[in-house]
Structures are given as C-alpha cells and as structure tokens.
Amino acid sequence: MKSKTQFCLVAGSTRTATIDGISAAGADPEAMRETPAADAELVVYGDLVRAGTVPVSPTGCPTPAVFTRAISTLLGLDVTVVDGGLLERTGAPTVSVGASPGGDIRDQDPVPSAPGTVAATREVGRALPGDELFVAETIPGGTTTALGVLRALGEEATVSSSLPENPLETKQSVVEAGLEASNLSPGDAAGDPSRALRRMGDPVLAAATGLALGALETDVPVTLAGGTQMLAVAALLRHAGIDRSLSLATTPFVLQDDSADVEDLAADLEVSITAIDPEFEAVDHPALSAYVDGEAKEGVGFGGALALADRAALPMATVRDRSLDVYDRLVEGVATP
Amino acid sequence: MKSKTQFCLVAGSTRTATIDGISAAGADPEAMRETPAADAELVVYGDLVRAGTVPVSPTGCPTPAVFTRAISTLLGLDVTVVDGGLLERTGAPTVSVGASPGGDIRDQDPVPSAPGTVAATREVGRALPGDELFVAETIPGGTTTALGVLRALGEEATVSSSLPENPLETKQSVVEAGLEASNLSPGDAAGDPSRALRRMGDPVLAAATGLALGALETDVPVTLAGGTQMLAVAALLRHAGIDRSLSLATTPFVLQDDSADVEDLAADLEVSITAIDPEFEAVDHPALSAYVDGEAKEGVGFGGALALADRAALPMATVRDRSLDVYDRLVEGVATP
User: Which residues contact B248 (CB under 8 A, 6 or more apart)?
Assistant: First the structure.
C-alpha cells in the first residue's frame, strides 16, 4: 500500500511571459495564457477538458505534457496538480494554496502572494503521504523569473530556454530592470528566499519551494523534476538553510543547452543530476525530432517522468510508442470540432 | 488505454446542515464544516492532509470515505474531486466550477451560484474522457436539501438519513419553511431544475446534475453513486427532459431504510438500482457494525465503489480487509500528534 511516489505538478503564470521573445510555451501570447491549464488537463486526463488548444511552440513542437502523461499511464503514477497562480480555468483538479498569477518582475512587487503560498505549500508538503516527492512545473516565462531569483540570491549561473536560441540577453535585461524596480542589487536577497520569490520570482517557484521544504522537514526525499527553474528552487532551498541531499531529474536536452551552465550550478548547489535519454532520434516523427533539435527541452516534469520510467526498467521504445499514441489522440481530438 | 470509469466526487456544503439534529456527518457542528474537505483528502490520498480530523458521526461511526478509498486503491480507480462549494480548505486537488457554499434553504435564495455551476459542470461533463461516469457526493445536510428539491419538483418521496433514526419531521418542517421563504408550492419548479436547485437545493446537487447532463449529452452512461441525494439528481435530470436510462449504485443500508421509499422513487423515475452487500456482519469490528446498525449508510460514493468492486469480481472479504487497513492507519495517524 505504501512505497509511493508523490508527483506534484505546480501550474501557474507570470506576466513576465508576455515580454516579446521570452518564451516558446505557446503558439502565441494568447495561447500561452492557457498553457499551464491545458498541461494540467493533459497530464491528468490525457485530453483537453476546458482548455481550448493543445500547447505547442510557435513552430508546432508539442508540450512535454505529452511525455509525462504517457509515462504516468504506463507506471500508474498519479500526478497531483497544485494551482500555482493559473490565469485560465482548468478542468483538472488542482490543490489551492492561495497563489495568484504572478506579475511582471520589472514591477516592484510582482508576487505579493509568495510568502503565503510558501507557507501553505509547506504545510501540504509536510502532510502529503508518500515515500518520496517529485516536484515539477509548468509556467511560461519561468526561466526568466528563475534567472531573476538566482540573481537576487547572488547566484551567478544562467538559465535554459524553451526556444532553440536562448534569448539570454533579453532575459538578463528584464532581470536587471526587475532588480532596479525592486531596489535590489544581485545577492541582496541571499539567505532570504521569500524576498527573492516575491520581488523577482513567480508563484510556481514559491509553491515548488514550499512543497519541497515541507517534505524535506518530514524526511521525505525530494526530486526536483525539471531544468533550470527547478535548479532555482534548489537554490531557494539552500538559501533557506536546507543542507539535505537534493536531486534534479531533467532531460538530456537541458544538459545539452550550452547557453545554460546547468551542471556547474548543480555542483555549486550540491544537487545530483539524473538525465535519462528518451532516444527520440530513434523515431522519425516531427513531435520527437523537434526535441532532438533543442525545442521545448523540458517542463511538466518530463525529466522526472523519464527518471521514474528508467527506475521501473520501462523500455524507452515503449515510452516513445505511448507518447505518440497520446499525441495522435490529441491531434485527432483537435481536428474534430 | 481507454475503457475507463470516470469517478467524480462532488464535495461541498449547505448551511442547512447547521440546523439541529439534521445530519450525522460529523462529530459536532464545528467538525461537520470540515467533513467534505476531509472526505476528499481521504479518498485521494488515504490520509488527512490539511483537514484536522477524520470525519465520524457523533457516535464515532467512520465516514464511508474509508470504503471508497479502500476500493479505489484495490481497483486502481482515480477519483476526481469537484469543488461543489467547500467551506474549509482541502489538501485534495479539486476541479473548480464556480460553486459557493450553499445557504440555509429556509432563506429566500440559498444557492445563487446554482445556474452557473450547472453550466460549468455540464461543460466539464461533456469533455471528461472516459467510457462511463460515476457521480458521488459528500455534503452534510444533503438529504434535507434533496427533500427540498424533490418537493419543489413535485415529487412525493421522502429521503434517507445518516442517522439511525431519520429526523424526517425536522426535515419536512425545514422544507416547508424553505418553500414558504421562496414563495413556492410543491411542484412549482416542475420542469425547471435550475429553479429547484437555486431555491431549495445545494451546490453539490447542482454540480452533480451538471456533470451527469454533460456526460449523457455525449452518450456517456451515467451511474449515480449514492442514496436519496443522488435520486434527487435523477429527478432533476428527468425534469431537465433527460429520458436516457439512469442507474443508481447505492448501499443495502439505504435500501433497508424504511423511512425512505427509495425503490418506489427509483421506479417512478425509471432508475435502475444496484446495491452490493459488503457483508459487514461477517466481521466483528465497531467501524463496520455501525453500518450494519444503520448509521451513516452511504455517501462519498460508497455504493458506487461497491458496484465497481463487484463488477471486477473483487471478493468482499478483500474489500473489508483493505477498508480496515485504511481505517487503522487513519486512527493511528490521529493518535500521533
């Protein structure tokens, strides 16, 4: 009855995503508003329920929710969605933790709900049954707020991107404007994760941090399932004084991103990395080859799901086949009015 | 990948429950506020997360959530919780459908959110994947609002109770006062389910009705998983013009309740009944014998879960054993601070 993995997907939003050229987590800015709500539905139901469109990048690369869904059905994994500030309604069940959509970090106080969200999710994280916790995210624009948090904490690293060409200069100038608006210099929020989250972060980072804090406080091991956003969560946990071991389960597509020094930052934060290769180049399919070409890369717990699939000795060919089943069904569903 | 039962538990509240002697769905009125939130956590996680106490009747009879949880883990059934107007926060993920806690039906407009909730849940019911839909409820005081709805629709039947002695006179006088406050005579809302729900119902009945409507409109068969509250939903569906076949999966404890003419009302509404006996008298345990003695009887989809267990040829001895495991773990959990 026990020996259970609790897999929490935090879904939310930041207005930072509306800055031109920041994110590929949606076909256009209007569609992007709905991406986390749609991702939650895809992971929970394998289908859209209230959301209007399957999230794709501007070039048509499908959301990694497809792969997380495929693996969760193969493993019988339950995914619990936490509302980390959704902008649009979702048909997926979500845990409410008092998160509101995040503002643009170039404003002075973009995430006033962050301290309350950390407190609520910490309580949930302490009480959730399960022998281990995986925490994942879906939030367009999230790598920019992750960069903002890292800077506020005084960490030097850069972040990855859902775009093949990481718009790092744009992100850095957004973060600079944000620090200025918040009257912060880099490192001014060192040791103060709540301040970093509230001034430079987003509600998803706040909820993910709280969940991990609560679990770690009750001796439940935590795996951060994602890329550089989840490394920002690791940094927040370290700045909260957590010295327990932490691991990151991400995709090889994130590790292959030379614009982000993931391995260096992970080493600095004493976070171990797992990155299981889904061997997408073995199949000639546009939905998979986009990932091989560096699009999307990670999100919705894709890397964490791959780690669980690998631990369960699930063949990657089975993962790929089921993923294409999920994808085909979605595309069919979209074609039917 | 398909052939899936969608099991929706609607959890909510009505201030009607605070009337003295109406409900046994909580040890006292304060605890009763939290019962649906706690039931949702028990079904989803098998444990409390944010709720403070395991729901029990004033005599200590445990919530039927214990049995639904036991069966759902044995069958690998996912239960989707819909927020049908929760009063207290829950750590369970819930689908938001715009429901607010219901007021006392002796007031003039106790459920102003009912029409919006029916519309939202109808949309969700249309879109939920799955080959069949089970709809269940947890709402203290729900049999009184069910009686109110039946009277507003012009149906003569009475309702069951979570108490061994059904306080039918109290319920009838509450309903009379409610009809007067709403300026309705019995039958005035015949053919107008929204009016019956808004004036004499509760938000859980509204959400359950909408879910069923949406599913039936897309040719997904619906099983109403519960007792007389779910028969009120059947009546609402009939008054909405639905003539498809409907079935009720309830417990034998409801059928044995002579104070409610369940079988007559079901026959009037052309609803077929399934009631699988969990054979609780086979085990000498206070948590089970309370049910044999007519306490609690039904709720949280207990009868629906039994029907699914029976369909899967799950031995009732296994159901009882697992139920006592769930119960023991909860009681232990409560003992630990």
Answer: B223, B224, B225, B226, B230, B231, B234, B266, B271, B272, B273, B274, B303
Does B129 contact chain A (CB < 8 Å)? yes
Question: Quick one: average pLDDT of B141-166?
Answer: 94
Write out the two tokens for B287.
Answer: 């948590």
Tokens of A220: 């439940």
Q: Does B89 touch chain A (CB under 8 A)?
A: yes
Min distance A173 CA to chain B CA atoms (Å): 37
Segment 40-59 of chain B within 8 Å of chain A by CB? 44-50
Residue B129: its chain A contacts at CB < 8 A?
A: 45-47, 49
Q: Which pair of structure tokens corresponds to residue A161? A: 């991107």
Distance CA A103, CA A295 (A): 26
**CB nearest to B93's CB, from A45, A76, A80:** A80
Per-residue pLDDT 10s for chain A (337 aa) are: 346 999 999 999 999 999 999 988 888 888 999 999 999 999 999 999 999 999 999 888 999 999 999 999 999 999 999 999 999 999 999 999 999 999 999 999 999 999 999 999 999 999 999 999 999 999 999 999 999 999 999 998 888 988 989 999 999 999 999 999 999 999 999 999 999 999 999 999 999 999 999 999 999 999 999 999 999 999 999 999 999 999 999 999 999 999 888 999 999 999 999 999 999 999 999 999 999 999 999 999 999 999 999 999 999 999 999 999 999 998 876 544 3
What distance in Å separates residue A254's CA from the closest CA in chain B? 30
Cβ proximity of B83 and B12 under 8 Å: yes
Integer angstrom CA distances of residue B18 from A248, B25, B145: 49, 11, 12
Distance from CA of B144 to the nearest CA of A (A): 28
Cα distance from N-terminal residue to C-terminal residue, chain B? 42
* Closest C-alpha among A307, A156, A315, A296 to residue A225: A307
Number of other CB atoms surrounding residue A121 within 10 Å: 29
Contacts of residue A140, defined as CB under 8 A and 6 or more positions apart, other chains included, come to A13, A14, A17, A23, A25, A26, A32, A35, A36, A162
CA A302, A305, A311 angle in degrees (round to 5)? 145
The verdict on a CB contact (< 8 Å) between B50 and A123 is yes
**A82 touches B: beta carbon within 8 Å:** yes
Q: Look-up: residue for tokens 């399932």?
A: A225
Q: How far is CA B246 from CA A173, A221, B145, in A?
A: 61, 47, 21
CB proximity list for B332: less than 8 A, separation 6 or greater: none
Q: Which residue in A91, A93, A124 is closest to B81 by CB distance? A: A93
